Amino acid sequence: MAADSVLKVLFEHEGVFIHPSSDEDGTEQDLLISGSLRIVDKDAEVLVEYRPLEDTVDPSNMLCAGKDSSSVMEWDQCSREKSQQLLETQQSYETEWDMINAVSFKKKSCTNGEGSLNHSHERSRWAFSFSVSELRSVTVKEEGWTFLLLKLKESCSSLPALHFHQGGSTEFLDSLRRFALLSEAAGDDACLLVSSPNRALSQSFENLLDDNNFGLVNQKFRKDPYITTLGGFSKVTNYIFDAFRGTEEQHQRPPEEVADLLGEVIPGLEINQQEEPGFEVITRMDLGPRPEVRRGTALSTEDWSRHQDAEGRMMNVALLKQLIFKGGLCHAVRKEAWKFLLGYFPWDSTLEERKVLQRDKMYDLTSSWGQFISDEYFRMKLQWKSVSEQQERRNSRLRDYRSLIEKDVNRTDRTNRFYEGIDNPGLVLLHDILMTYCMYDFDLGYVQGMSDLLSPVLYVMENEVDAFWCFVSFMDQMHQNFEEQMQGMKTQLIQLSTLLRLLDLAFWNYLGKYNYSSVLV
Amino acid sequence: MTTKTSLLKVILLGDGGVGKSSIMNRYVTNKFDAHLFHTIGVEFLNKELEVDGHQVTLQIWDTAGQERFRSLRTPFYRGSDCCLLTFSVDDNQSFLNLGNWKKEFIYYADVKEPEKFPFVVLGNKVDVTERQVSSEEARQWCQENGNFPYYETSAKDATNVAVAFEEAVRRVLALDERTDHLIPTDTVNLHRKPRSAATCCS
Ligand SMILES: Nc1nc2c(ncn2[C@@H]2O[C@H](COP(=O)(O)OP(=O)(O)O)[C@@H](O)[C@H]2O)c(=O)[nH]1
Ligand SMILES: [Mg+2]
Q1: What Enzyme Commission number does this protein have (chain B) (predicted)?
Q2: Which has the closest alpha carbon to A448: B66, B59, B162?
Q3: Cα dist. A187→A161, A184, A190, A192 in Å?
Q4: Dist CA A245 CA A324 (whole Å)
Q5: Which of A495, A489, A429, A503 has its CA nearest to residue A459?
Q6: Which of A63-77, A153-167, B61-75 is least confident?
Q7: What's the pLDDT score for residue A334?
Q8: pLDDT tens figures, A386-405
Q9: Tens of pLDDT, residues A186-215
Q10: Contacts with B132 from chain A: Cβ below 8 Å
Q11: Under a CB-based contact definition with an 8 Å cutoff, are residues A8 and A217 in contact?
Q12: What is the mean pLDDT of the segment spanning B179-188?
């Protein structure tokens, strides 16, 4: 039965584009297809799938994206004329990408009259899927961004080039390497020849399931949707993809229609439900009675040390994480445990290695600078500290960062004893670490919301240098939420919207009816 | 029982830190919290009031001022009935940016006739003594940019806050009969309290 068919998503990346104009003779010059590229294991066959998405974010949001992602954009670029002008000149190098991306999609308000269904049918013809074993070669090209040309063994008509405007090509190739051998063609190192071994991979998939990055099994979700949802919130979109696949088989839907439905998961298109009978598929989501969830006991210092071997390596990390997830940590363990959880300390490091790491972060021994400034953290701190008022007057970015930080430090967790009152040293530390982070990653600089992430870290660490490095590791994970394009936030909002639609369609429709769907999209 | 009320959407725009959230909180809860949390994305509060015999639910939308959050705030511009352009009298840069905020609003709100759209300008923090923007300068800007009403407010000591919102309502009501804003208040089944708050994310 179709419902029993197991589909695992092994890799997924949204924001992979097809440029139809370069493949055809410019009939749709301004059309860019955005889609999601996946590697899935379906009944022990590894498939590569590309599914176009309707624009997943309100395109009008992106019109003002800066020319250079690291610079604060000029207000003037807001003007409609300018972005259209850009479109006409058909510049397609990366620096102009945001603009083109923005104007190529139709504004939601325009789609009312013209029938959005057509629009999505249009897109669905770009969907494709093939087995990894059919793949002959992958050619990697760079043009400010990476794009891949995929060639199949049988077919003489080649697939459209996949443009990774939002990164992810390396990850895709790495993921592909798990299932096929990629070797450079003689004389052309951009071309990777694919040979897939006779795959006896089924057992390795079991291992893959342990890996956080990998997908959700249909049945598991059905059995225990709450737990699985908690454990894999971000994977729910995969489930929905799976749900669609399921119905495809049950009702023998033509692939195009399925692709349409997939595009439909992403709201923004107003598709009349009467005209789309398959739509109710994802609305049927009986979660059953809510299971009783009880909080476990917090992990104590003794529990924590019990998970360390003689040399201080953490053991049974998966179990440990699960215990922490279920019961949290006693405050006394946090200072130590957070360094691991935030990614500052590697789980498999020995106590000795950690000491060295901490010392190196404090004292950069390779530095030829004098003893005072040999400290990596303090070296960066000194960089902004030593900027004179005159210099700062000529450095608007630094000035802006400082002003934002000052405003936000004043508004962060001020009721906590660590930050309350007027002259609390906690405020100075919060300020200094955020300023130093600007020197650590000047392109990103300071973005509102960072102070909220740092505040509890600093509170727990009670140490400027450790708090800084924990924050750095934390930011490595949260970076996407703060970038100019805010891909991380958009993804989360889309996921929220998808979930809402699945779990409370009436409310989701309500939001759509009052035009608040853009809130979530 | 379908009592009808006009729902008016007003949106507060301006640089981060000028006091938008404080103004909203002063108006809706009549409190000032010097340690208010900063705004991420967008939040709104409702306030019921009566202006010149009209029963109105004012839905006040507060936004995050930082550049980076543009794409989180701009989708909310659409459908606004009035825009409160806010600066702080002790921050000249926030005053200089008023024009940009106005432009951004008109663009994303998809305003049909920008010349007729009701903007109200607020110069906040008049309680502080070190001013960087004079009343004259501010009034002149308002005059030149569409003859907008101008109020010098203080969220801290409540100066002119209610007056400014009431003026905003008057401007909107004066514009047309507001028939399109008549919504039956029992549409939403969410056990709405008279004052409900929501945040868009986190
Ligand atoms: N003195 C004074 N400070 C204010 C006033 N309004 C806001 N503030 C302070 O200015 C800072 C920023 O206010 P907030 O409402 O968060 O600004 P927003 O970013 O525009 O929402 C906070 O520290 C407030 O306490 C005011 O009228 N007078
Ligand atoms: Mg605010």
Answers
A1: 3.6.5.2
A2: B66
A3: 22, 8, 9, 11
A4: 35
A5: A429
A6: A63-77
A7: 97
A8: 999 999 999 999 998 999 99
A9: 888 888 888 865 443 333 333 333 333 333
A10: none
A11: yes
A12: 47
| Residue A61 contacts B where some CB pair is shorter than 8 Å | yes
CB of A73 within 8 Å of a chain B CB? The answer is yes
pLDDT digits (tens, 9 = 90+) for A86-95: 333 333 332 2
Helix (H) or strand (E) holding B182: strand B182-184
Our CA dihedral for A427, A450, A334, A469, rounded to 10 degrees, sits at -90
Residue A448 pLDDT level (bands cut at 50, 70, 90): confident
Query: What is the phi-psi region of residue A121: left when phi exceeds 0, alpha when psi lies from -120 to 50, beta otherwise?
Result: alpha
Classified by CATH at the fold level, domain B6-182 comes out as Rossmann fold (3.40.50)
Which residues in chain B touch residue A59, judged by CB atoms under 8 angstroms apart?
Answer: none
Exposed e or buried b for every residue in A426-457, given b needs 16+ CB within 10 A?
Answer: bbebbbbbbbbbbbbeeebbbbbbbbbbbbeb
d(CA A313, CA A100): 50
Ligand 1, atom 8: nearest CA belongs to which residue?
A: B19
Q: What average pLDDT does the structure give for chain A?
A: 70
Instruction: Report d(CA B71, CA A488) in Å as an integer.
Output: 12
Q: Looking at the CA of B13, which ligand is closest?
A: 1
d(C-alpha A140, C-alpha A162), whole Å = 10
Measured between beta carbons, the chain B residues lying within 8 angstroms of A407 are: 16-17, 38
> Distances in Å between the alpha carbon of A184 and those of A146, A168, A187, A188, A446?
17, 20, 8, 7, 42
A89 in contact with B at a CB cutoff of 8 Å? no
Contacts of A36 (CB under 8 A, 6+ apart): A12, A13, A14, A15, A16, A50, A51, A53
The pLDDT-based confidence of A442 (bands split at 50, 70, 90) is very high
Predicted local confidence at residue A217, as pLDDT: 35
* C-alpha to C-alpha distances, A404 to A435, A451, B18, B89, B122, nearest whole angstrom: 10, 10, 12, 17, 21
Using CB atoms within 10 Å of the CB of residue B176, give its burial: 0 to 12 exposed, 13 to 18 middle, 19+ buried.
Answer: exposed
For residue A356, the distance in angstroms to the closest alpha carbon of chain B comes to 38
CB within 8 Å of chain A, chain B residues 65-104: 66-72, 74-76, 78-79, 100, 103-104
Q: Contact A285/A503 with Cβ under 8 angstroms?
A: yes
Q: Left, alpha or beta for A507 (phi > 0: left; psi -120 to 50: alpha)?
A: alpha
φ and ψ at residue B154, rounded to 5 degrees: -140, 115
- Prediction pTM value: 0.57
d(Cα A187, Cα A84) in Å, to the nearest integer?
Answer: 42
| Whole-number pLDDT of residue A389 | 93
Task: Measure in Å the smallest separation between the Cα of A454 and chain B Cα atoms.
Answer: 14
pLDDT at A280: 34
Name which of A8, A210, A412 is nearest B36 in CA terms: A412
Q: Is the pLDDT of residue A416 over 60?
A: yes
Residue A449 vs residues A19, A413, A452, B20, B187: alpha-carbon distances, Å: 35, 12, 5, 17, 35
Strands B42-51 and A162-164: unpaired
Across the interface, which of A80, A484, A493 has its CB nearest the CB of B68? A484
Nearest-Cα residue of chain B relative to residue A58 = B75
The span from the CA of A57 to the CA of A105, in Å, is: 10
Q: Are A411 and B35 in contact (CB under 8 A)?
A: yes
Cα dihedral sign for A315, A319, A322, A326? negative
Look at the block and give the residue holding tokens 């009320």. B5
ipTM associated with this complex: 0.75
Helix, strand, coil % (nearest 5) of chain A?
50, 15, 35
Task: Let me know: does A46 contact A86? Beta carbons within 8 Å.
Answer: no
Q: Say how many Å lie between the CA of residue A363 and the centre of ligand 2.
A: 40
